[in-house]
């Protein structure tokens, strides 16, 4: 009974933490744009949270710079279980144009496990919503 | 009793990773220190391995909000190196996108300022209207954020009658909404009370600390590259440089709202006087050995690109001085003797774009934790000192 309730509430209110690991800001503003009236992800119960301790889903942008690596791991560990990671943008997936640069690790999945990849450079807000909904479907099944 | 408070790299007030160390006495900030490098990707080095054309798309990805600023600044420089002049229509479309980008950036900033001041409905309003600009940009270029419209020698897409009409129609809505924001930003008592007097930066300090863009204009200095050193078509377009003399966050808000109206005027002028003809000329693949400095007024201030060519199809050096970097010194000054609660507001007021500004190299001594910034010459000297004792092969033959 209790597990059913937590499962249901998890599906209805995934709280997200937005984390920039060296992105060019384009994906970040598109993630924020997804929260604003035109796209409005709050209708799915999605709320942008300020601290990893409140979040269920980490929305990661950027190709993971060397200096962010330790911070990224720390933030991942601070997030309570069960936690999910969405890699937003081509950078977060593989490094995009920065691939091969000396200070870039080339993708979030080089550092922490990733559940959903959202492609695009930058991603459209619609794609961010699609990614979140896909994650929710993954949780249902 | 002094305390040190760290803010960032992951912090609710910051959308991008940066670390602020504040030394506070009670509520009052006595000293502030910025730690950078979380967003350093090594872009300038990467640029040396890519061709002139490939670098347009790389410089576009320096920053997502002022992406067109960086490409235009770069392309202007490369066109000077290659000694080509883009056709008039191409230039008009290029700077039309520039002004549209300024509108979207300022609307975005107004929303963020409203959010930091605790006025979230303002944030939602401005971001809703920002979507109108994003739609225009999407119809012109096919993408919302990285437009990819610049190319060496002009632009990649042309405008048709229908698009011009669409832009003019949307502009009427934006103008009406901006008038409402102007009324709100200058008359809403709680909003004005929150912003007035916060983050004071005197005229003398603004000049001495080399602040740029709306930050310096809000301190009463009419500094704008578009007027001071007109590039492209700005010599022939009528517009005014907007200033305010309150020297605080309120002034920076007013300057940006005023600039919105100037942008609308410029866009209207460009569309009504759009010349006919081709939009681009063919560019050579190589550039003669030379160097050039290109200046551009980005939404956040003056953007400088230094480009050096060596006769091949790749640049030898690309140096970017983004406007946010110019504003960091002034930010420290603004933060000092302010309240902790004002930090997000003051920091947001320079419209920081951290990804633009991550260029410097800081060396940290791993044992003592001591930090120092090192210049290229000092680095060379250091490497010579280290390698001085090594046996050197005289008269070595060049392998190629």
From TrEMBL, chain A:
Annotated organism of origin: Candidatus Saccharicenans subterraneus
InterPro entries attached to this UniProt entry: Complex_I_20kDa-like, NADH_UbQ_OxRdtase-like_20kDa, NADH_UQ_OxRdtase_20Kd_su
Domain of life (superkingdom): Bacteria
Gene3D superfamilies registered for this protein in UniProt: 3.40.50.12280
GO molecular function, one term: metal ion binding
Cofactor(s), names only, from the UniProt record: [4Fe-4S] cluster
Record keywords, A-Z: 4Fe-4S, Iron, Iron-sulfur, Metal-binding, NAD
Entry protein name: Group 4 [NiFe] hydrogenase small subunit
PANTHER family found in the cross-reference section: FORMATE HYDROGENLYASE SUBUNIT 7-RELATED, HYDROGENASE-4 COMPONENT I
Residue ranges annotated for the NADH:ubiquinone oxidoreductase-like 20kDa subunit domain, each copy included: 24-135
Recorded family membership: Belongs to the complex I 20 kDa subunit family.
Pfam families: Oxidored_q6
Keyword Lipid biosynthesis: no
From TrEMBL, chain B:
Domain NADH-quinone oxidoreductase subunit D: start-end pairs: 118-289
Obligatory cofactor(s): Fe cation; Ni(2+)
GO MF, any single term: ferredoxin hydrogenase activity
Binding-site positions, Mg(2+): 44, 320
UniProt keyword Cell wall biogenesis/degradation, yes or no: no
Chain residues that bind Ni(2+): 63, 66, 353
Sites where the protein binds Fe cation: 66, 356
Protein origin, superkingdom: Bacteria
InterPro entries in the record: ComplexI_49kDa-like (IPR052197), NADH_Q_OxRdtase_suD (IPR001135), Ni-dep_hyd_lsu (IPR001501), Ni-dep_hyd_lsu_Ni_BS (IPR018194), NiFe-Hase_large (IPR029014)
Keyword terms, alphabetized: Iron, Magnesium, Metal-binding, Nickel, Oxidoreductase
Protein name: Group 4 [NiFe] hydrogenase large subunit
Protein source organism: Candidatus Saccharicenans subterraneus
């Amino acid at each position: 009974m209790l597990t059913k309730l937590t499962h249901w509430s998890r599906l209805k209110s995934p709280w997200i933490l937005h984390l920039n690991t060296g992105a060019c800001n384009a994906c970040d503003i598109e993630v924020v744009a997804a929260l604003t009236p035109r796209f409005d992800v709050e209708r799915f119960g999605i709320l942008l949270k300020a601290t990893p301790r409140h979040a269920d889903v980490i929305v990661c942008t950027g190709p993971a710079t060397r200096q962010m690596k330790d911070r990224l791991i720390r933030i991942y560990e601070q997030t309570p279980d069960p936690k999910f990671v969405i890699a937003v943008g081509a950078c977060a997936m593989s490094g995009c144009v920065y691939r091969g640069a000396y200070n870039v690790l080339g993708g979030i999945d080089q550092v922490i496990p990733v559940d959903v990849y959202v492609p695009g450079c930058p991603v459209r807000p619609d794609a961010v919503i699609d990614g979140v909904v896909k994650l929710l479907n993954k949780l249902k099944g | 009793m002094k305390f040190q408070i760290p803010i960032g790299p992951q912090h609710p007030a910051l959308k991008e990773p940066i670390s602020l160390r504040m030394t506070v006495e009670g509520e009052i900030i006595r000293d502030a220190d910025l730690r950078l490098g979380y967003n350093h990707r090594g872009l300038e080095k990467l640029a040396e391995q890519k061709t002139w054309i490939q670098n347009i798309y790389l410089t576009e990805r320096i920053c997502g909000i002022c992406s067109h600023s960086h490409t235009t600044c770069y392309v202007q420089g490369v066109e000077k190196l290659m000694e080509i002049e883009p056709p008039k229509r191409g230039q008009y479309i290029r700077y039309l996108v520039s002004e549209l980008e300024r509108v979207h950036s300022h609307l975005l900033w107004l929303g963020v300022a409203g959010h930091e001041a605790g006025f979230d409905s303002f944030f939602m309003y401005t971001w809703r209207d920002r979507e109108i600009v994003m739609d225009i940009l999407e119809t012109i270029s096919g993408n919302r954020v990285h437009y990819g419209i610049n190319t060496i020698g002009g632009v990649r897409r042309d405008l048709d009658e229908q698009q011009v009409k669409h832009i003019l129609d949307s502009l009427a809505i934006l103008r009406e909404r901006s008038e409402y924001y102007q009324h709100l930003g200058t008359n809403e008592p709680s909003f004005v009370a929150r912003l007035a007097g916060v983050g004071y930066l005197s005229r003398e300090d603004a000049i001495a600390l080399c602040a740029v863009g709306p930050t310096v204009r809000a301190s009463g200095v009419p500094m704008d590259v578009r007027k001071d050193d007109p590039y492209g078509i700005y010599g022939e377009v009528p517009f005014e440089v907007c200033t305010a003399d309150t020297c605080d966050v309120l002034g920076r808000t007013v300057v940006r709202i005023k600039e919105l109206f100037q942008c609308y005027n410029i866009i209207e002028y460009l569309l009504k006087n759009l010349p006919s003809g081709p939009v681009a000329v063919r560019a050579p693949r190589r550039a003669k050995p030379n160097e050039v400095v290109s200046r551009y007024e980005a939404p956040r201030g003056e953007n400088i690109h230094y480009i050096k060519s060596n006769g091949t199809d790749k640049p030898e050096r690309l140096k970017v001085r983004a406007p946010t970097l110019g504003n960091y010194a002034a930010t420290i000054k603004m933060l000092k003797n302010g309240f902790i609660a004002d930090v997000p507001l003051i920091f947001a007021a320079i419209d920081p774009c951290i990804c633009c500004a991550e260029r410097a190299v800081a060396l940290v001594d791993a044992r003592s934790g001591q930090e120092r910034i090192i210049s290229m010459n000092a680095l060379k000297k250091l490497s010579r000192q280290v390698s001085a004792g090594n046996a050197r092969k005289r008269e070595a033959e060049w392998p190629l």
